[in-house]
From TrEMBL:
Gene3D superfamilies: Insect odorant-binding protein A10/Ejaculatory bulb-specific protein 3
Pfam families xref list: OS-D
UniProt lineage: Eukaryota, Metazoa, Ecdysozoa, Arthropoda, Hexapoda
Protein name per UniProt: Ejaculatory bulb-specific protein 3-like
Recorded name of the encoding gene: LOC113399765
SUPFAM superfamilies registered for this protein in UniProt: Chemosensory protein Csp2
Length: 122
């Protein structure tokens, strides 16, 4: 009986992990973040280990970022993917120096360029 309970719990956790990222991340107002350069810079500094991760979900985003880049946001909800796309556009268009730092930290070998381009083109 214990084994059955354990298996049920384990399978439940597996389904959550495979399903995707928590929908709580859908609730962040990404447009507000992008309009507030101080707030956006705080997030970016967190990702680059240049500042504390004190903004909403910033430490969790930092942990997810390598996977999101490597799998093209495959586990993202539709809203999360759209938000990631907005951030990418902002960084590509207005923060090229930060873009280079992010690539240096998270994609030294340019392995994820195709994934990023795909997200931007969707």
């Amino acid at each position: 009986m214990r084994m059955l309970k354990f298996a049920t719990v384990a399978l439940s956790l597996l389904v959550v992990c495979v399903k995707g990222y928590d929908e709580k991340f859908d609730k962040i107002d990404i447009d507000k973040v992008l309009k507030d350069d101080t707030l956006l810079t705080a997030y970016l500094n967190c990702f680059l280990d240049k500042g504390p991760c004190t903004e909403e979900y910033s430490s969790e985003y930092k942990e997810m970022l390598p996977e999101v880049m490597s799998d093209g946001c495959a586990k993202c909800t539709k809203i999360q993917k759209e938000n990631f796309k907005k951030v990418l556009k902002e960084v590509f268009e207005n923060k090229k120096d930060v873009l280079m730092e992010i690539k240096k930290k998270y994609d030294r070998n340019d392995e994820y360029d195709d994934n990023i381009r795909k997200i931007l083109s969707e």
